[in-house]
Design brief:
This is Probable calcium-binding protein CML18. Keywords: Calcium, Repeat. The chain is built from 4 helices and 4 strands. It is mainly alpha-helical and 96 residues long. The N terminus is likely disordered. The longest helix is centred in the middle third of the chain and has 12 residues.
Length: 96
């Protein structure tokens, strides 16, 4: 069993770029795409209840081409899911 240390947890509000950077931590195979299992780990880091179910629903909603992965082009759809279903506050601007 491997233990991973996650450095960045989402704050109360974040930009889309910050959301992508947070999610990138969980891309275990570094292929630039997020699988259901990787999304489940991300949700577990937030101590989300029913992380397996929320991850399944998130990938199902975001995966437009139905390949079982959330590609770079589909991240916007995952942002929408996170805002609507997970009540994450993600804005489309940076805080600079």
């Amino acid at each position: 069993m491997a233990f991973m240390c996650y450095r960045v947890l989402p704050q109360r509000e974040m930009s889309i770029e910050e959301f992508k950077a947070w999610l990138k931590q969980f891309d275990a195979n570094r292929d630039g795409r997020i699988s259901r299992e990787e999304l489940q780990q991300a949700l577990r880091s937030l101590h989300a209840w029913f992380a397996w179910w929320k991850a399944r629903e998130g990938v199902k909603e975001a995966d437009a081409d139905r390949n079982g992965l959330v590609d770079k082009e589909e991240i916007g759809r995952l942002v929408g899911y996170a805002q609507k279903r997970l009540h994450m506050k993600i804005n489309d601007y940076d805080y600079y």
